[in-house]
Structures are given as structure tokens and as C-alpha cells.
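Thread: Transporter, structure

OP (GT): Posting the sequence first so everyone is looking at the same thing. Length is 192 residues per the record. Can we get the C-alpha cells written out before standup tomorrow? I want them in the notebook alongside the other entries.
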Amino acid sequence: MEKSSGTKRNSFSSSLGFVLAAAGSAVGLGNIWRFPYLAAKNGGGIFLVIYLVLALTFGFTLLVSEVAMGRKTKQGCLTAYGVLHSKSKWIGVIAEIVPFMILPYYCIIGGWVLKYFTVFATGNGAAAAGDDYFGGFITSTVSPIVFDVIFLAATAVVIALGVNKGIEAISKVLMPLLLLAIIGIINILSDP
């Protein structure tokens, strides 16, 4: 459904908000969670170099292309490809299906993060550091589902709030917190 030209589209209110949201999308929970494992398993430093080259070439190119396409067509992903070329409408459909395919993955990982955040915030971090804690959590019948649903609900609320009050606002809070957490982890691990 196309919007009339008189309808104001919801957009980012600042460049900082856009940059933080784009960085959050590029970094992603999957990269933070799996990256150390993948780097260690696949060659360490050389993996990091190749990863950075690919991220800066392909990742940056795709980001700039997507932003340019959005600015030119003034459309969302679903309809922008069709505006550019009528035979390309199917690409927009696929681009809308992919997030629904990865949503369960992110809900599970997000639920785990939420569980551990809750455990550490309530002062039970020592118990969570035990070898059997994670296995006990993921094999539980109720607890993982509860945290997955809470994560899904929080995500739905952010999206329902829209670009300014949802995605941009949460990015302005969570991305600096992520940076502080990474700096803190590096500081802790570099102490003798």
C-alpha cells in the first residue's frame, strides 16, 4: 500500500540516531555472540583481517545501496525494488521474508542474554558462571520459553513505537552501553 505524497513518513530525527541504528544492525547480536568463537576456530588474526575487508567492502556497499535506494524511491524495502524495476518486485518480498526467518534465532539468543542479564543483575552471577548452569537453563521446559517471549515482546514494543520513539531511541541507549561493556571487558581482560 503506497502512501500519498501528503503523508509524512516516519524517519530518523538525527544523523546520530541513524548511524547508531545502522551500526547496531551491522554489528548485531549474532556477531558479538559468535565472533570470538569463529575467529578462534578459523585462524585468529587472518580471519579478523578477511572479516574486516569483507565487512568494509560488501557490508558498506550494501548499506550505502540500501540507503540510496530508500532515498530515491521514498519507499520501504518491500516496494522499493518494484519502483526501480517492475520485474524486481520479488526481491522486496524476499527481503521482507528473511527477517521472519531469522527472528526465532534472535529470540533464542536474546532470551539467553536476557536470562544472564537478569541473573547477574540480581547478584547470582557466581551460580551462572558454573559449568552446568547454561545446560540446565536451556533444557528447562519453561524458563527458556519465558525469556524468549519476553525478548520477542520487547522487540515488538520497540518496533511498534516506530523509528523515532522506538528504534532510534533504543539505539541511542543500547549502542553506547554496548561500547562501554566492550571497553570494560577489554580492560578487565588486559589487567595482569
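GT: Both are above now. Quick notes for whoever picks this up: The chain is about 80% helix and 0% strand. Residues 89-121 form the longest helix (33 residues).
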